[in-house]
Amino acid sequence: MEQPADPRGRRLFGGSARALGDLAASPFRADRDRIVASPFFARLNGVTQVISPGGSGLLVHNRLTHSLKVAQVARAIAERLTADPAHRDLLDKLGGCDPDVVEAAALAHDLGHPPFGHLGERVLDRLARQRLGLSDGFEGNAQSYRIVTSTEIRGAATTGLDLTAAVRAAMLKYPWTRLDHPDPHPRHLDPPPRGAAAPPDDPESGSVKFGAYRTEVDDLRQAREPFAGRIPEWQQTPEASVMDTADDIAYAIHDVEDFYRVGVLQQGAVAAELMAWQRESGHFRSITDAALTAAGRRPGAAIERLRRQLHRKDAWIADDEAFAAAVEHVREELVDGLLALPFDGSIEAEQYVARFSARWSTRFVEAITVTPEPDVRSGHVLLAKAQWHEVQVLKFVHHRFVLARPDLALHQRGQARLLGALVEALWEWLLDPEEESRLPRRLHDLVELAEAELHPRTPDRIGRARGRAIVDFVAQLTDGQAVAMLDALSGRSGALWTDAFVL
User: Fold this and answer.
1) CA pair distance 121, 129, nearest whole angstrom
2) Pairwise CA distance, residues 304 & 284, whole Å
3) From start to end of 159-298, where are the E strands?
4) Is the dihedral of CA 155, 156, 157, 161 positive or negative?
5) 473 with 138: CB under 8 angstroms?
6) Which of 147, 377, 475, 502 stands 20 to 30 A from 114 (CA)?
7) 19-38 burial, b if ≥16 CB within 10 A, otherwise e?
8) Which residues face 157 on adjacent strands?
């Protein structure tokens, strides 16, 4: 196949696989087809976004529906920006902003997310570093990048999804590795880019968020090569910035929608928090951090802590007037609007939710702008100040009134124990010499792939390869497959179960 003339279209493996679209006309649409046709995309239907569909009893977003909505928002942003000559000219200087590229990147951005949502990501990272000795640990974005570049196995070949450089670069929300690329590493900047800082309690572990493991760093460099001289090595491409912003928008809107549907988000609690801060904002702003901490769960204290956190982390945009206006707008939309009547499953209720989501989506998409010199904690594509604050307040609502709930914590602690037991059971299986020929074929292939990636002189090369293979294998399971596989390995299931083995 003839390669595209645009260097952004260079493929990693030569483009031998043909997708459904006309590759000559649009290699980026072919990328979208490859992603959607991948079994890794289909599995997202069984992966938790925030709350488990099985536990809620109602239809809530999973990783698949979330990815589809991020793609929808990302494409709308790209089309709006490229229709404006001033924005389009600036974007062209920065490397371009193709709607097909941002749509494909948005569809692929969560391919590597493991079972049980962000909880699964944290647990696998801890197990990978502390139990399996992998310094890169686990990170959902890096795992997505690994999937599209190396771990989709077709027979004997390991060719990834053969995506163009532009789409791979657009997937990189965090275009650095955990520890050592680029040099100097962005975690040493003051302040560091969003996600690049190391955990305060473990500064030697590297960045909290990162876009690629060491094994994919050459591919990261190749994907980013066309942007050299246009943007710093640690900065998102404009298309990655669009995708990242769309992800934030979808997360802020659709999670609130989900929590309302399942009856978790209650009008009284949200009203008490927002209105108490509005009534007593002068008092809250005047007290010390220690006094605010002592206020504990007093209504209004939590959102004051958010206001102060925004000033500490994002002084480049944090603004008290914009914050107060955002609290008021969210209060009107939620307390006086969406939450005023409980969700009852009626057609009228569904239409009301749909109008709420559409109204917020339009508001945010229309507030997108492009800047030639963004702050270190921002991308080139960003929300206007007012809408940026609104996103922060919407995200606060579901963090405060859903993620902090003890019943959710109880559920998630069980999921964390399950993942730990599953990793341990697979490790023991891999170490059993009598079982080597009976390993799941996918796991066997992943061990061979991981071993081939490591330098022959790597200390404990076989052990590290096995550890990475286990992480890859578990990350490719759905929630249900993880539960069923542990049941089978622990002897609790009497059924012959093979679902996860065919991945």
Assistant:
1) 12
2) 7
3) none
4) positive
5) no
6) 377
7) bebebeebbbbbbbbbbbeb
8) 154
* Strand runs labelled E in 60-170: 153-154, 157-158
Where b means 16+ CB within 10 Å and e means fewer, 157-192 reads ebbbbbbbbbbbbbbbbbbbbbbebbeebbbeeeeb
pLDDT, position 25: 67
Amino acid occupying residue 480: G
> Collapsing DSSP states into helix, strand and coil, what is residue 365?
helix
* pLDDT value at residue 151: 53
- CA 295 from chain centre, in angstroms, equals 33
CATH superfamily of 7-238: Hypothetical protein af1432 (1.10.3210.10)
In contact, 166 and 9? CB cutoff 8 Å: yes
pLDDT tens digits, 347-385: 999 999 999 999 999 999 999 999 999 999 999 999 999
CA distance 268 to 468: 47
The angle formed by the CA atoms of residues 201, 203 and 207, to the nearest 5 degrees, is 110
Looking up tokens 């559409």, which residue turns up? 358
Looking at the predicted structure, is the pLDDT value of residue 140 above 90? yes
pLDDT at 2: 38
Q: What angle do CA 405, 332, 310 make, to 5 degrees?
A: 60
Q: CA angle, 218 as apex, 216 and 222 as ends, to 5°?
A: 115
Q: Is the pLDDT of residue 5 over 60?
A: no
Residue 491 class from Cβ within 10 Å (0-12 exposed, 13-18 middle, 19+ buried)? exposed
